[in-house]
Amino acid sequence: MDVKELEVNKTLPFDPSLLSVNISLRQIEEIAMTVSQRCHVTGANEIAWALRALMLTDLTTLAGDDTAANVRRLCLRACYPFEPQFFDKFFDRALIPEMHTAAVCVYPARVKDAYHTLQQYDKLDKVAIAAVATGFPTGQYGLQTRLQEISHAILAGATEIDIVINRQLALVGDWEALYNEVVLMRSACGQRAHLKTILAIGELGTMENVYKAAMVCMLAGADFIKTSTGKETVNATLPVGLVMIFAIQEFKRRTCQIVGLKPAGGVKTVRDAIAWMTMVNETLGIRWLRPERFRFGASGLLDDIERVVREGVKKLEEEEALKNLPVSREAAAAETFCKELRKKKETQ
Protein backbone atom coordinates (compact mmCIF):
# COMPACT_ATOMS: atom_id res chain seq x y z
CA MET A 1 0.00 0.00 0.00
CA ASP A 2 1.46 3.35 -1.08
CA VAL A 3 1.62 5.95 1.69
CA LYS A 4 1.47 9.54 0.47
CA GLU A 5 2.31 12.58 2.54
CA LEU A 6 -0.56 15.05 2.50
CA GLU A 7 -0.62 18.78 3.10
CA VAL A 8 -2.21 19.16 6.53
CA ASN A 9 -2.84 22.02 8.94
CA LYS A 10 -0.31 22.81 11.64
CA THR A 11 -0.93 22.66 15.37
CA LEU A 12 -0.84 26.14 16.87
CA PRO A 13 -0.25 27.08 20.54
CA PHE A 14 -3.34 27.17 22.78
CA ASP A 15 -4.65 30.75 22.87
CA PRO A 16 -7.55 31.44 25.30
CA SER A 17 -8.13 34.86 23.73
CA LEU A 18 -9.61 33.15 20.65
CA LEU A 19 -12.35 31.64 22.83
CA SER A 20 -13.87 34.97 23.82
CA VAL A 21 -17.29 35.22 22.13
CA ASN A 22 -20.81 36.53 22.66
CA ILE A 23 -23.47 35.15 20.30
CA SER A 24 -26.99 36.47 19.70
CA LEU A 25 -29.03 33.35 18.94
CA ARG A 26 -31.94 35.36 17.55
CA GLN A 27 -29.71 37.23 15.09
CA ILE A 28 -28.02 34.01 13.98
CA GLU A 29 -31.40 32.38 13.33
CA GLU A 30 -32.64 35.42 11.36
CA ILE A 31 -29.56 35.40 9.12
CA ALA A 32 -29.91 31.65 8.51
CA MET A 33 -33.61 32.06 7.66
CA THR A 34 -32.83 34.84 5.18
CA VAL A 35 -30.22 32.68 3.45
CA SER A 36 -32.57 29.70 3.21
CA GLN A 37 -35.18 31.88 1.46
CA ARG A 38 -32.69 32.95 -1.23
CA CYS A 39 -31.68 29.51 -2.41
CA HIS A 40 -34.56 28.53 -4.72
CA VAL A 41 -33.35 27.39 -8.16
CA THR A 42 -35.00 25.48 -11.00
CA GLY A 43 -34.26 23.91 -14.36
CA ALA A 44 -30.68 23.59 -15.55
CA ASN A 45 -29.44 25.59 -12.55
CA GLU A 46 -30.91 23.02 -10.17
CA ILE A 47 -29.13 20.22 -12.07
CA ALA A 48 -25.84 22.13 -11.84
CA TRP A 49 -26.21 22.69 -8.08
CA ALA A 50 -27.18 19.03 -7.58
CA LEU A 51 -24.07 17.85 -9.40
CA ARG A 52 -21.93 20.26 -7.36
CA ALA A 53 -23.43 18.73 -4.19
CA LEU A 54 -22.60 15.26 -5.54
CA MET A 55 -18.92 16.15 -5.91
CA LEU A 56 -18.86 17.54 -2.34
CA THR A 57 -20.43 14.50 -0.69
CA ASP A 58 -18.80 11.98 1.65
CA LEU A 59 -21.08 9.02 0.88
CA THR A 60 -21.54 7.34 4.24
CA THR A 61 -22.56 4.03 5.75
CA LEU A 62 -22.23 3.74 9.53
CA ALA A 63 -24.61 0.95 10.45
CA GLY A 64 -24.12 -1.94 12.83
CA ASP A 65 -24.94 -4.43 10.07
CA ASP A 66 -22.41 -3.09 7.52
CA THR A 67 -20.72 -5.87 5.57
CA ALA A 68 -18.05 -6.06 2.88
CA ALA A 69 -20.85 -6.35 0.29
CA ASN A 70 -22.54 -3.16 1.59
CA VAL A 71 -19.27 -1.26 1.35
CA ARG A 72 -18.61 -2.51 -2.20
CA ARG A 73 -22.05 -1.27 -3.28
CA LEU A 74 -21.39 2.06 -1.57
CA CYS A 75 -18.08 2.47 -3.41
CA LEU A 76 -19.70 1.58 -6.74
CA ARG A 77 -22.32 4.32 -6.26
CA ALA A 78 -19.63 6.76 -5.15
CA CYS A 79 -17.54 6.12 -8.29
CA TYR A 80 -20.36 5.78 -10.82
CA PRO A 81 -23.53 7.53 -9.59
CA PHE A 82 -24.81 7.76 -13.19
CA GLU A 83 -24.29 5.62 -16.26
CA PRO A 84 -21.84 7.39 -18.69
CA GLN A 85 -24.29 7.59 -21.61
CA PHE A 86 -26.80 9.44 -19.41
CA PHE A 87 -24.92 12.72 -19.90
CA ASP A 88 -24.11 12.37 -23.59
CA LYS A 89 -26.70 14.80 -24.92
CA PHE A 90 -26.42 17.75 -22.54
CA PHE A 91 -22.96 17.51 -20.96
CA ASP A 92 -19.38 17.45 -22.15
CA ARG A 93 -18.20 13.83 -22.06
CA ALA A 94 -14.85 15.01 -20.67
CA LEU A 95 -16.66 15.91 -17.42
CA ILE A 96 -17.90 12.36 -16.81
CA PRO A 97 -14.72 11.18 -14.97
CA GLU A 98 -15.30 14.02 -12.45
CA MET A 99 -18.85 12.87 -11.67
CA HIS A 100 -18.17 11.06 -8.41
CA THR A 101 -18.43 11.75 -4.70
CA ALA A 102 -15.56 13.33 -2.78
CA ALA A 103 -15.15 10.34 -0.46
CA VAL A 104 -16.72 7.29 1.12
CA CYS A 105 -17.01 7.24 4.92
CA VAL A 106 -17.06 3.97 6.88
CA TYR A 107 -16.10 2.42 10.21
CA PRO A 108 -12.39 1.51 10.66
CA ALA A 109 -13.20 -2.21 10.35
CA ARG A 110 -14.59 -1.61 6.84
CA VAL A 111 -11.77 0.60 5.52
CA LYS A 112 -9.92 -2.33 3.95
CA ASP A 113 -13.07 -3.33 2.02
CA ALA A 114 -13.38 0.22 0.67
CA TYR A 115 -9.68 0.34 -0.23
CA HIS A 116 -9.78 -2.89 -2.26
CA THR A 117 -12.98 -1.86 -4.07
CA LEU A 118 -11.69 1.59 -5.04
CA GLN A 119 -8.41 0.01 -6.09
CA GLN A 120 -10.35 -2.37 -8.33
CA TYR A 121 -12.12 0.60 -9.98
CA ASP A 122 -8.82 2.55 -10.19
CA LYS A 123 -10.37 5.39 -8.15
CA LEU A 124 -8.04 5.60 -5.16
CA ASP A 125 -6.72 8.95 -6.39
CA LYS A 126 -10.23 10.28 -7.08
CA VAL A 127 -12.40 9.11 -4.17
CA ALA A 128 -10.95 9.48 -0.68
CA ILE A 129 -11.53 6.96 2.11
CA ALA A 130 -12.72 8.54 5.35
CA ALA A 131 -13.04 6.58 8.60
CA VAL A 132 -14.83 7.61 11.77
CA ALA A 133 -12.67 6.98 14.82
CA THR A 134 -11.93 7.68 18.50
CA GLY A 135 -14.93 5.79 19.82
CA PHE A 136 -17.52 7.09 17.35
CA PRO A 137 -20.21 8.23 18.06
CA THR A 138 -19.90 8.80 21.83
CA GLY A 139 -16.14 9.16 22.29
CA GLN A 140 -16.53 7.50 25.70
CA TYR A 141 -13.37 5.38 25.51
CA GLY A 142 -9.90 5.62 26.95
CA LEU A 143 -7.56 8.01 25.18
CA GLN A 144 -5.03 5.35 24.16
CA THR A 145 -7.79 3.20 22.67
CA ARG A 146 -9.04 6.17 20.65
CA LEU A 147 -5.56 6.95 19.35
CA GLN A 148 -4.95 3.31 18.39
CA GLU A 149 -8.18 3.33 16.39
CA ILE A 150 -6.82 6.21 14.29
CA SER A 151 -3.61 4.29 13.55
CA HIS A 152 -5.57 1.14 12.66
CA ALA A 153 -7.76 3.03 10.16
CA ILE A 154 -4.77 4.71 8.48
CA LEU A 155 -2.88 1.42 8.16
CA ALA A 156 -5.97 -0.09 6.49
CA GLY A 157 -5.96 2.67 3.86
CA ALA A 158 -7.91 5.66 5.24
CA THR A 159 -6.71 9.08 4.12
CA GLU A 160 -9.24 11.06 6.17
CA ILE A 161 -10.08 10.54 9.84
CA ASP A 162 -13.34 11.88 11.33
CA ILE A 163 -12.74 11.98 15.09
CA VAL A 164 -15.33 12.76 17.77
CA ILE A 165 -14.31 15.22 20.45
CA ASN A 166 -14.69 14.58 24.18
CA ARG A 167 -17.95 16.43 24.88
CA GLN A 168 -17.49 16.03 28.63
CA LEU A 169 -14.45 18.33 28.53
CA ALA A 170 -16.37 20.89 26.48
CA LEU A 171 -19.38 20.88 28.82
CA VAL A 172 -17.25 21.53 31.92
CA GLY A 173 -15.25 24.20 30.08
CA ASP A 174 -11.89 22.44 30.23
CA TRP A 175 -10.86 23.74 26.82
CA GLU A 176 -7.13 23.25 27.27
CA ALA A 177 -7.61 19.56 28.09
CA LEU A 178 -9.76 19.20 24.97
CA TYR A 179 -7.06 20.97 22.96
CA ASN A 180 -4.41 18.55 24.29
CA GLU A 181 -6.48 15.51 23.26
CA VAL A 182 -7.07 16.79 19.73
CA VAL A 183 -3.36 17.63 19.41
CA LEU A 184 -2.57 13.96 20.10
CA MET A 185 -5.11 12.92 17.47
CA ARG A 186 -3.55 15.34 14.97
CA SER A 187 -0.18 13.77 15.76
CA ALA A 188 -1.61 10.26 15.26
CA CYS A 189 -2.81 11.26 11.78
CA GLY A 190 0.49 12.95 10.93
CA GLN A 191 0.73 13.74 7.24
CA ARG A 192 -0.87 10.45 6.26
CA ALA A 193 -4.47 11.58 6.78
CA HIS A 194 -6.55 14.75 7.00
CA LEU A 195 -8.22 15.32 10.36
CA LYS A 196 -11.93 16.17 10.59
CA THR A 197 -13.15 16.96 14.10
CA ILE A 198 -16.80 16.16 14.88
CA LEU A 199 -18.17 18.64 17.42
CA ALA A 200 -21.46 16.78 18.05
CA ILE A 201 -23.20 20.16 18.27
CA GLY A 202 -26.45 18.64 19.57
CA GLU A 203 -24.67 17.72 22.81
CA LEU A 204 -22.71 20.93 23.44
CA GLY A 205 -25.54 22.87 25.04
CA THR A 206 -24.96 26.41 23.71
CA MET A 207 -23.85 28.22 20.57
CA GLU A 208 -20.94 29.67 22.55
CA ASN A 209 -19.73 26.14 23.27
CA VAL A 210 -20.02 25.29 19.56
CA TYR A 211 -17.85 28.31 18.68
CA LYS A 212 -15.27 27.54 21.39
CA ALA A 213 -15.07 23.83 20.50
CA ALA A 214 -14.58 24.75 16.84
CA MET A 215 -11.82 27.20 17.74
CA VAL A 216 -10.03 24.70 20.02
CA CYS A 217 -10.07 22.02 17.30
CA MET A 218 -8.69 24.45 14.72
CA LEU A 219 -5.89 25.49 17.06
CA ALA A 220 -5.06 21.80 17.56
CA GLY A 221 -4.58 21.35 13.79
CA ALA A 222 -7.94 20.22 12.41
CA ASP A 223 -8.26 20.30 8.62
CA PHE A 224 -12.08 20.33 8.87
CA ILE A 225 -14.61 21.02 11.58
CA LYS A 226 -17.71 18.83 11.30
CA THR A 227 -21.12 19.46 12.83
CA SER A 228 -22.35 16.08 13.98
CA THR A 229 -22.10 12.32 14.08
CA GLY A 230 -25.60 12.04 12.63
CA LYS A 231 -26.61 10.09 15.72
CA GLU A 232 -27.59 13.05 17.94
CA THR A 233 -31.11 14.44 18.31
CA VAL A 234 -29.98 17.73 16.68
CA ASN A 235 -27.53 17.52 13.80
CA ALA A 236 -26.54 19.94 11.02
CA THR A 237 -28.66 23.11 11.09
CA LEU A 238 -28.01 26.38 9.28
CA PRO A 239 -27.74 28.50 12.48
CA VAL A 240 -25.09 26.15 13.91
CA GLY A 241 -23.32 26.13 10.55
CA LEU A 242 -23.24 29.93 10.60
CA VAL A 243 -21.61 29.95 14.05
CA MET A 244 -18.97 27.51 12.81
CA ILE A 245 -18.41 29.68 9.72
CA PHE A 246 -17.86 32.73 11.94
CA ALA A 247 -15.27 30.71 13.88
CA ILE A 248 -13.52 29.71 10.62
CA GLN A 249 -13.48 33.35 9.45
CA GLU A 250 -12.06 34.64 12.74
CA PHE A 251 -9.48 31.84 12.90
CA LYS A 252 -8.34 32.63 9.35
CA ARG A 253 -8.14 36.35 10.17
CA ARG A 254 -6.03 35.71 13.29
CA THR A 255 -3.80 32.87 12.05
CA CYS A 256 -3.97 32.89 8.19
CA GLN A 257 -4.78 29.15 8.39
CA ILE A 258 -7.67 27.75 6.31
CA VAL A 259 -10.03 25.15 7.78
CA GLY A 260 -12.82 23.32 5.95
CA LEU A 261 -16.45 22.78 7.00
CA LYS A 262 -18.48 19.56 6.94
CA PRO A 263 -22.19 19.54 7.81
CA ALA A 264 -23.34 16.00 8.57
CA GLY A 265 -26.69 14.59 9.58
CA GLY A 266 -29.90 16.26 8.43
CA VAL A 267 -28.74 17.15 4.89
CA LYS A 268 -31.11 14.83 3.04
CA THR A 269 -32.31 16.72 -0.05
CA VAL A 270 -30.84 18.81 -2.83
CA ARG A 271 -32.76 21.78 -1.43
CA ASP A 272 -31.00 21.28 1.94
CA ALA A 273 -27.65 21.08 0.15
CA ILE A 274 -28.31 24.23 -1.91
CA ALA A 275 -29.16 26.15 1.28
CA TRP A 276 -25.80 25.16 2.80
CA MET A 277 -23.86 25.94 -0.38
CA THR A 278 -25.59 29.33 -0.66
CA MET A 279 -24.63 30.18 2.92
CA VAL A 280 -21.03 29.10 2.38
CA ASN A 281 -20.81 31.05 -0.88
CA GLU A 282 -22.16 34.24 0.75
CA THR A 283 -19.89 34.03 3.82
CA LEU A 284 -16.68 32.18 2.98
CA GLY A 285 -16.81 32.64 -0.80
CA ILE A 286 -17.11 30.48 -3.91
CA ARG A 287 -13.57 29.14 -3.42
CA TRP A 288 -14.81 27.18 -0.41
CA LEU A 289 -17.22 25.16 -2.56
CA ARG A 290 -14.70 22.49 -3.46
CA PRO A 291 -13.86 19.16 -1.79
CA GLU A 292 -10.68 20.48 -0.16
CA ARG A 293 -12.73 22.94 1.91
CA PHE A 294 -16.35 21.81 2.08
CA ARG A 295 -18.11 18.44 2.35
CA PHE A 296 -21.51 16.97 3.08
CA GLY A 297 -21.60 13.90 5.31
CA ALA A 298 -24.66 12.03 4.09
CA SER A 299 -26.08 8.61 3.37
CA GLY A 300 -29.40 9.57 1.73
CA LEU A 301 -28.49 12.80 -0.11
CA LEU A 302 -27.26 10.92 -3.19
CA ASP A 303 -30.74 9.43 -3.68
CA ASP A 304 -32.28 12.90 -3.99
CA ILE A 305 -29.40 14.15 -6.16
CA GLU A 306 -30.05 11.29 -8.56
CA ARG A 307 -33.80 12.01 -8.61
CA VAL A 308 -33.33 15.75 -9.25
CA VAL A 309 -30.76 15.22 -12.01
CA ARG A 310 -32.73 12.50 -13.80
CA GLU A 311 -35.99 14.46 -13.66
CA GLY A 312 -34.20 17.63 -14.76
CA VAL A 313 -32.54 15.97 -17.74
CA LYS A 314 -35.88 14.40 -18.71
CA LYS A 315 -37.47 17.87 -18.77
CA LEU A 316 -34.62 19.21 -20.90
CA GLU A 317 -35.13 16.34 -23.36
CA GLU A 318 -38.87 17.06 -23.54
CA GLU A 319 -38.22 20.76 -24.19
CA GLU A 320 -35.71 19.84 -26.89
CA ALA A 321 -38.22 17.48 -28.50
CA LEU A 322 -40.92 20.19 -28.55
CA LYS A 323 -38.56 22.56 -30.35
CA ASN A 324 -37.90 19.97 -33.05
CA LEU A 325 -41.52 18.92 -33.63
CA PRO A 326 -42.57 19.22 -37.33
CA VAL A 327 -45.12 21.96 -37.99
CA SER A 328 -48.54 20.68 -39.11
CA ARG A 329 -50.06 21.81 -42.46
CA GLU A 330 -52.85 23.71 -40.68
CA ALA A 331 -50.37 25.53 -38.45
CA ALA A 332 -48.15 26.35 -41.43
CA ALA A 333 -51.13 27.69 -43.40
CA ALA A 334 -52.25 29.84 -40.46
CA GLU A 335 -48.73 31.22 -40.05
CA THR A 336 -48.56 32.08 -43.79
CA PHE A 337 -51.96 33.81 -43.61
CA CYS A 338 -50.86 35.89 -40.61
CA LYS A 339 -47.68 36.93 -42.39
CA GLU A 340 -49.68 38.08 -45.44
CA LEU A 341 -52.03 40.13 -43.23
CA ARG A 342 -49.06 41.78 -41.49
CA LYS A 343 -47.48 42.55 -44.85
CA LYS A 344 -50.71 44.17 -46.19
CA LYS A 345 -51.05 46.25 -43.03
CA GLU A 346 -47.46 47.49 -43.36
CA THR A 347 -48.05 48.36 -47.03
CA GLN A 348 -51.22 50.34 -46.23
Automatic annotation (TrEMBL):
It is an enzyme of class 4 (lyase). Coiled coil: none annotated. GO terms for cellular component: cytoplasm. Keywords: Lyase, Schiff base. GO terms for molecular function: deoxyribose-phosphate aldolase activity. Pathway: Carbohydrate degradation; 2-deoxy-D-ribose 1-phosphate degradation; D-glyceraldehyde 3-phosphate and acetaldehyde from 2-deoxy-alpha-D-ribose 1-phosphate: step 2/2. It catalyses: 2-deoxy-D-ribose 5-phosphate = D-glyceraldehyde 3-phosphate + acetaldehyde. InterPro entries: Aldolase_TIM, DeoC, DeoC/FbaB/LacD_aldolase. Pfam families: DeoC. It comes from the Eukaryota. Its EC number is 4.1.2.4. GO terms for biological process: carbohydrate catabolic process; deoxyribonucleotide catabolic process; deoxyribose phosphate catabolic process. Belongs to the DeoC/FbaB aldolase family. DeoC type 2 subfamily. This is deoxyribose-phosphate aldolase. It comes from Drosophila rhopaloa (Fruit fly). The gene is LOC108046222.
